[in-house]
Design a protein that fits this description.
Blueprint lengths: L9 E12 L2 E12 L3 E5 L6 H9 L6 E6 L2 E2 L10 E4 L11 H5 L10 H14 L15 H13 L5 E5 L7 H18 L2 E6 L2 H7 L2 E6 L2 E6 L1 H6 L4 H6 L4 E11 L2 E6 L3 E6 L10 E7 L5 E3 L8 E12 L3 E8 L6 E6 L12 E6 L5 E3 L1
Parallel strand pairs: 3-8, 3-9, 6-7, 7-8
Antiparallel strand pairs: 1-2, 1-4, 4-5, 9-10, 11-12, 11-14, 12-13, 14-20, 15-19, 16-17, 16-19, 17-18
Helix pairs in contact: 3-4
The protein binds adenosine-5'-diphosphate (ADP) and magnesium ion (MG).
Magnesium ion (MG) binds next to helix 1.
Length: 368
């Protein structure tokens, strides 16, 4: 994460952007600001409008109303090729019959610089993405990860202020994708330009981004840094989309002095701070949510530092470093998931085991 990114000036501004494809309302009032030098992600399920929004930055897509500003300038009459942006497509968008350096230098073909200067720029771009010495190779002979680097070098050589990436890693296998994620983060820090990434993969967005806009159906549901999105999602829908969140039915009894009194199934009566209820809440039926790692199964002799409840283990999934337990808390039908880090010498518990469970009011989020 970039330190003090909040102090940076804005690079991209969306002001109440609407986009229609015929009758279809694809973008429904997008207002947001992306900061200079930020690694920003658009995250959401397929069809929610991520690519459309990204293309309005590039100028590949016109908008129906509202405004897109880049670096303080209104983009309405600025065509794509005159915007300070460049788009990285998936790795298969490189030309297989050209060499690596021909691919990278492709965008410079109308550049007035001398051939020697262009060759130098190509070599620099290749070095930047870790492909020094690969210039003469045939592009078709490269691995998926190397092709992705060629696509990046080809975009970076034009020195854009904003790099736009539309699911650039989705064609790679899991190991390669994780490696490229780390490389992309490093590269973004090194070049310092604004990156806007489109992804439907919540883990990828959490790992890579300074901030994330979570989108559903043409709208931004929440825009925040990864930790806020994870710890304080503003709706059940966002909570469900980002990681695993358990929900228990709850009744709101009242509110006093910044505390909301709640009766939650399986947990009992609890006071929740109003800042742990990021959505609009009033009295009545609600639910409390908590992440699997915020509950702890207590082994014999252990005591809870805060609150304690009890239940029965319903399912056990062993992951080596972690075990996921589905625990049926007393008085609740649906089991909750609890993740426990495995500790050497401590047994994995069996299905059917009665167990005490430690929890804390501070980890709960209250939803409508
Ligand atoms: N050129 C187009 N013409 C008509 N509808 C489109 C066009 N491009 C995208 N759409 C529709 O707009 C919605 C958003 O698409 P898109 O931005 O590609 O979503 P995402 O990238 O989040 O998967 C989808 O329902 C899609 O079918
Ligand atoms: Mg898309």
């Amino acid at each position: 994460m970039t330190v003090q990114s909040a102090d940076r000036p804005s690079m991209i501004e969306f002001q109440d952007v609407h986009k229609y494809y015929g009758d279809y309302h694809a973008l429904r009032g997008i207002t947001a600001s992306i900061r200079a030098g930020e690694f920003f992600s658009l995250l959401g399920p397929s069809g929610c409008g991520k690519t459309t929004l990204l293309r309005t930055i590039a100028g590949f897509e016109g908008i129906s109303s509202g405004a897109v500003m880049i670096d303080g300038k209104h983009m309405e009459h600025v065509p794509a090729n005159q915007r300070p942006t460049n788009m990285v497509f998936q790795s298969y968008a490189i030309f297989p019959h050209l060499s690596v350096e021909q691919n990278v230098g492709f965008g410079l073909r109308r550049d007035p610089r001398s051939e020697a200067d262009k060759a130098k720029a190509v070599a620099e771009a290749l070095e930047m993405v870790g492909l020094k010495g690969y210039g003469a190779r045939a592009a078709h002979a490269l691995s998926g990860g190397q092709r992705q680097r060629v696509a990046l070098a080809r975009a970076l050589i034009l020195k854009p202020k904003v790099l736009l990436l539309d699911e650039p890693l989705s064609a790679l296998d899991k190991k390669m994708r994780e490696q490229m994620q780390v490389e992309l983060i490093k590269l973004q820090r090194q070049v310092g330009i604004t990156f806007v990434l489109v992804t439907h993969d919540q883990e990828e967005a959490l790992v890579m981004s300074d901030r994330i806009a979570v989108m559903f159906e043409g709208e931004i549901a929440q825009l925040a840094d990864p930790e806020t999105l994870y710890r304080r999602p503003n709706s059940r829908r966002v909570a469900d989309f980002i990681g695993v969140m358990n929900f228990l039915p709850a009744t709101i009894l009242g509110e006093a002095n910044g505390q909301i009194q709640v009766e939650a199934a399986g947990l009992g009566r609890v006071e929740i701070e109003t800042n742990q209820a990021p959505g609009a809440i009033s009295e009545g039926e609600a639910s409390v949510g908590f992440r699997p790692e915020t509950l702890t199964i207590l082994y014999e002799g252990q005591t809870a530092s805060d609150r304690e409840t009890a239940g029965t283990i319903d399912e056990v999934v062993y992951y080596g470093d972690m075990t996921y337990y589905d625990v049926r808390l007393d008085g609740v039908d649906k089991p909750v998931r609890i993740s426990m880090r495995n500790v050497f010498g401590r047994p994995v518990l069996d299905i059917g085991t009665r167990t005490r469970v430690a929890w804390s009011a501070g980890a709960l989020v209250l939803f409508r």
